[in-house]
Amino acid sequence: MKIQENTPLALYTKLQIGGPARYFVEAGSINELKEAISWAKEKNLGYMVIAGGSNLLVSDEGYNGLIIRINFSGISQKDGVITVKAGTPLQEFVDYTVEHGLDGASTMSGIPGSLGGAIYGSAGAYGDNIRDHLKSVLSLDGDNAKTLTRDEFETGYRDSIFKRNKKLIILEAEFGEFAKSDPDELKKEAEKILATRNGKYPQSVKCPGSFFKNVVLEDLSTRQKDEVNSALLDFGKDIAVLEKFGKIPAGALIEILGGKGDRIGQIQITLNHANTFENLGGGQALDFFQLAKKWKNKVKEKFGIELEPEVQLVGFKESL
Ligand SMILES: Cc1cc2nc3c(=O)[nH]c(=O)nc-3n(C[C@H](O)[C@H](O)[C@H](O)COP(=O)(O)OP(=O)(O)OC[C@H]3O[C@@H](n4cnc5c(N)ncnc54)[C@H](O)[C@@H]3O)c2cc1C
């Protein structure tokens, strides 16, 4: 285990933004992870795990503790139960299910990042969600490994027990009870999704995915719903389509208020999707934060809706 000092976190985030981690280590095994945590505890330092860095906004000041990058991976199957290690790229898991004709993960094709990060953020897209076939999660709770079963981590939209208890670290997870399907059909579906994604997030875009969580319709008062619906209709948006999954896209709210293309420094809201905040190159975390805050405030003023970031903020003194 090699602990580095003053490692620029911009190197480890999809956004390519972020000041230094005071200490940084790659954990290539569960033992190395435990060792790294003990090291941080002995030095009285805070610590945090990251993996693919695809859902992070790290402050320009960085992180004053130990960042542990989860770097152990692997997929195995026994008696219909698939075990996946936390650092496995989510795409490898999706490909595995597709190749084995297991229906239930193919529409997550193209979501960047690791399996552990996906469980942490309850990732999903176009109908499939990482929770759907999740049976149990082996996690590290302090010094002890413990298995959490389905009813213990059952959570809502883009939420998880791991978000609420940051000391729980996902080590590996078990999946099962997939319906059987034709691998070729699943492959076609996955490719269709990938093509749609490439339109929404071209490979060259430096962004952390959707910045804000979408708005759950159930959480709105009737008045708020009416106001949002009428503004969306005025803007020519098809409410039936937007409401299909019981949510209003945060991007639609920002778009109708004129957010597309708005820019602070080198951070811009993309022209094709108002919930994508892009680093045009050499961008600063502070500019990103200010732009996000500006549009969060505008949505709040107009609709009384408090947008919540989906992206995890690291090393900021103020919350969004
Ligand atoms: C272009 C683009 C498109 C995206 N599209 C989608 C989408 O369609 N749907 C969607 O849901 N998300 C999407 N995302 C967001 C992102 O891909 C997911 O949130 C992903 O699951 C994060 O995984 P990661 O390994 O990159 O996590 P990181 O960004 O490294 O970390 C994110 C959080 O997870 C925690 N974490 C990571 N690993 C562990 C672990 N083993 N144990 C405990 N906590 C852990 C970290 O502490 C951190 O708080 C997109 C991102 C990008 C860049």
UniProtKB/TrEMBL annotation:
GO terms for biological process: cell division; cell wall organization; peptidoglycan biosynthetic process; regulation of cell shape. GO terms for molecular function: FAD binding; UDP-N-acetylmuramate dehydrogenase activity. The active site is at residues 158, 210, 310. InterPro entries: FAD-bd_PCMH, FAD-bd_PCMH-like_sf, FAD-bd_PCMH_sub1, FAD-bd_PCMH_sub2, MurB, MurB_C, MurB_C_sf, Oxid_FAD_bind_N. Keywords: Cell cycle, Cell division, Cell shape, Cell wall biogenesis/degradation, Cytoplasm, FAD, Flavoprotein, NADP, Oxidoreductase, Peptidoglycan synthesis. Its EC number is 1.3.1.98. PROSITE patterns: FAD_PCMH (PS51387). This is UDP-N-acetylenolpyruvoylglucosamine reductase.
